Amino acid sequence: MKKCHWTSAIMIAVIGTAITAGPVKAAEVEVNETAYTDVSAMTMWTEPNILREMDLPSASNPASLNEWTSAMNVDDKLWLVGNLESQALFGSKVHVLEKKKGWVKVAAEGQGTPRNELGYPGWVPEEQIVESNRLEKLENEPFALITSPTAELTYDKKGRKDYKELSYNTRLPVVKEQQEEVLVATPSDGNKWIEASDIEIYNNENDIPEPEAKNVIADGKQFLGLPYLWAGMSGFGFDCSGFTHTIFAANGIEIPRDSSVQAKHGVPVAKEDLKPGDLLFFAYDNGEGRVHHVSMYIGGGDMIHSPNSRSAVEIVSLEDSGYADEYAGARRYLEE
Q1: Can you give 129-159 as a three-state secondary structure string?
Q2: Which member of 5, 95, 292, 305 is catalytic?
Q3: What domains can you pick out in the chain, each with its CATH number?
Q4: Would you call 245 a catalytic residue per the annotation?
Q5: 3-state SS of the chain: helix, strand, coil percent to 5?
Q6: What's the rounded Cα separation, in Å, for the pair 219 and 233?
Q7: Are 98 and 31 in contact (CB under 8 A)?
Q8: Beta bridge partners of residue 315, listed in sequence order
């Protein structure tokens, strides 16, 4: 089980007819090549052509994540369970595995899973990925890491003309630094500006400071009240393991994508030895079965998590959360 447990579609025969094409033809990307995500958060599906009409804003280029999520009621969100895989953020690298009638199966780098050594697999519309020789050449250059829940990328300085709203944990190569704005490269549309207050700039991944528990907890608290989204990996919505994975990734710590796999790595921690920043896991059959949920311990008996399709990111007492009877152990990924 991947994300969190919660248990009529209009089939789109040819998704390309319903999606606005991006600035670079995705048909140029071939199987076994690498490409880059060209939308704010690219939603990955279990199969091609299973979208409902209401899902089209998530599958366009540009994608409209807020429009998509705000239009869904609880039942609409529950339908996504089992139909979505994960998400990939703007500018992130993917490996093209397969192509089928306007769709491509990709593996998203940086989302560890035993399902594919290249990254997390899923189907996406061709229009949402592009080749980018420029991003490839800039891979080893300093990058801007978005630290705000979301941030506007703009055509001009001072934010007079918006280009795209991006998510926390998005990384883009830095072209030029100024006092209040930073010029960054995009996958297919040249350079754009972002406010310096929304980012941190690092020379490479190893340059990200080793975080303390207070850092990851503070980052998590930025998203209190953000509605849950199955497969969500962005400031537009998280599932339970997408929340923990993304918070840790933005702090320079790579952990697996899914809760069941997160529960097998890191350092095991006894319940009486819990420290803030530890990840807590919950399983079926009173904690003895398959892991289905993860949260982060924040101290004082409390945890922060993105619970399910009926709720939002919240802080709750572990014992009063409704998960206490399913407690299945804890893992520590932070250095002591």
Answers
A1: EECCHHHHHCCCCCEEEECCCEEEEECCHHH
A2: 305
A3: 15-133 (2.30.30.40), 141-203 (2.30.30.40), 213-332 (3.90.1720.10)
A4: no
A5: 20, 35, 45
A6: 14
A7: yes
A8: 304
Question: Average pLDDT, whole number, for the chain?
Answer: 92
pLDDT exceeds cutoff 60 at 4 = no
- H or E, element range at 294: strand 291-299
Residue 16 has pLDDT above 70, yes or no: no
| Structure token pair of residue 162 | 């918006």
CB 257 within 8 A of CB 241: yes
pLDDT at 123 over 60: yes
Report pLDDT digits (tens) over 72-118: 999 999 999 999 999 999 999 999 999 999 999 999 999 999 999 99
CA distance 145 to 269: 31
Rounded CA separation 166/169 (Å): 9
Alpha helix locations (H) across 32-79?
65-70, 74-79
Question: Is 305 in the active site?
Answer: yes
Per-residue pLDDT at 45 exceeds 80: yes
- To the query of whether residue 95 is one of the catalytic residues in this protein, the response is no
Beta carbons of 133 and 34 less than 8 angstroms apart? no
Integer Cα distance of 47 and 25 in angstroms: 21
Active-site entry in 95, 240, 245, 292: 240
User: How many Å apart are CA 89 and CA 67, to the nearest integer?
Assistant: 17
CB proximity list for 17: less than 8 A, separation 6 or greater: none
**Residue 157: per-residue pLDDT:** 86
CA 294/CA 282 separation, integer angstroms? 6
- One of 5, 95, 245, 293 is an active-site residue; which one? 293
Predicted local distance difference test score (pLDDT) of residue 160: 81
Q: pLDDT, tens digit, for every residue of 127-139?
A: 999 999 999 999 9
d(CA 280, CA 283): 10
